[in-house]
Write a structure and sequence with these properties.
Number of strands: 11
Radius of gyration: 25 Å
Strand order of the largest sheet: 7-6-8-5-9-11
CATH topology of the largest domain: D-Maltodextrin-Binding Protein, domain 2
Bound molecules: calcium ion
Largest sheet: 6 strands, mixed
CATH class of the largest domain: Alpha Beta
Shape: globular
Oligomer: single chain
Number of helices: 13
Number of domains: 2
CATH superfamily of the largest domain: Bacterial extracellular solute-binding protein, family 7
Helix content: 40-55%
Length: 358
């Protein structure tokens, strides 16, 4: 080999090495490691399990370029600091429910559920094709957060009562675990809303510290053993007609993701939204059968006059909240307009069809 050939060869090899290390650097820069916190206890069925599946899906779809390590509530930060942790960039992503942040963002309650509001199907239509998601991003922008709907419990149950509810008078003096706007409505009806975490509910109901409680739906209610603590199980969950779970991403972390990884997160969030809702529906069907047939639970409907009074008090409550907060008012108006159209369509679609089948 001549000297000039050797020199050319070495130069080429050098060039190749530089190219390789540049490629490695590019690959390293293209790898993202995110931390995710949630508001759910470890292994919490459907909720936390769904989130773990979401993280696995993102890793698989991105061929490992985006890895999300999931921490249940209390592991990295307390459950109810999920919003702040993602907002401040302590972690990149979180999962919970927007109505937990009502103290900071009152209008966020519309992004989860409001009493006598829109059900799961309509909420998805509102978010994806009715301007709801754009309003949500507008609400969260001051907190450096981007939101995605990511799960739905479906219509919840009205709750467990240790006495029958036959009239509006039976709500007077009723001590019930019921959070948020539902609790405000109950207090207008003369009841006393009590705030209790999931882990405290069973004992409080069993010992008579409270007279009633709502929780989620047949599946989670059965797992908590509430049928052993109270006799009467009422429907429908007027206060939570389609509770939406949320995925929140820090906007700076989001901006650092290349377009393809952003799309993977967005589509995985849509998949989670459908996945969790479907699992809830399937498990509620199964648990309802067990509660009815195995545990002989007395499952009954709230009397129509109780529901219509609660509906009247809900309108009063929402109007009062709208007076206190301009963005609550703005979102309420958009939500109401969509709900009216959605109701008109449903009345000749799902509602009419269900009636026709009976
Ligand atoms: Ca609930």
């Amino acid at each position: 080999m001549s000297y000039s050939n050797l020199r050319r060869g070495l130069l080429m090899l050098g060039g190749l090495l530089i190219l390789c290390s540049q490629l490695q650097l590019a690959q390293a820069a293209d790898k993202f490691r995110w931390k995710m916190v949630t508001t759910w206890p470890p292994n919490f069925p459907v909720f936390q399990e769904g989130v773990e599946r979401f993280a696995k899906n993102v890793e698989t779809m991105s061929d490992g370029r985006l890895k999300i390590q999931v921490f249940p509530g209390g592991k990295l930060v307390p459950a109810l600091q999920t919003f702040d942790a993602v907002s401040q960039g302590t972690v990149q992503i979180g999962h919970g429910a927007a109505y937990y942040w009502a103290g900071k963002v009152p209008a966020a309650q519309f992004m989860t559920t409001v009493p006598f509001g829109i059900t799961a199907k309509g909420m998805n239509a509102w978010f994806y094709y009715g301007g709801g998601l754009a309003l949500w991003d507008e609400l969260y922008a001051p907190f450096n957060l981007k939101a995605f709907p990511a799960g739905n419990t479906g219509v919840q149950m009205g709750g467990w009562f240790n006495k029958e509810i036959n009239s509006v008078d039976d709500l007077k003096g009723l001590k019930m675990r019921i959070p948020g706007l539902g609790g405000k409505v109950l207090s207008k009806a003369g009841g006393t809303p009590v705030l209790l975490a999931g882990g405290e509910i069973y004992t409080a109901l069993e010992r008579g510290t409270i007279d009633a409680t709502e929780w989620v739906g047949p599946h989670h209610d059965e797992r908590l053993g509430l049928y052993r603590a109270a006799k009467h199980y009422y429907f429908p969950g007027w206060h939570e007609p389609g509770t939406v779970l949320e995925l929140i991403v820090n906007t700076k972390a989001w901006g650092e993701l290349p377009k393809d990884l952003q799309k993977i997160v967005e589509i995985a969030a849509q998949a989670l939204n459908l996945d969790m809702y479907s699992e809830f529906e399937a498990k509620n069907i199964q648990s309802l059968r067990e509660l009815r047939d195995k545990y002989k639970v007395d499952i009954k409907q709230f009397p129509p006059e109780v529901l219509s009074e609660l509906k009247r008090l809900t309108e009063e409550t929402l109007n009062e909240e709208a007076e206190k907060d301009a963005s609550f008012k703005k979102v309420y108006e958009a939500y109401q307009a969509f709900q009216a159209d959605n109701d008109a369509w449903n009345s000749i679609a799902d509602d009419a069809y269900n009636k026709a089948r009976q």
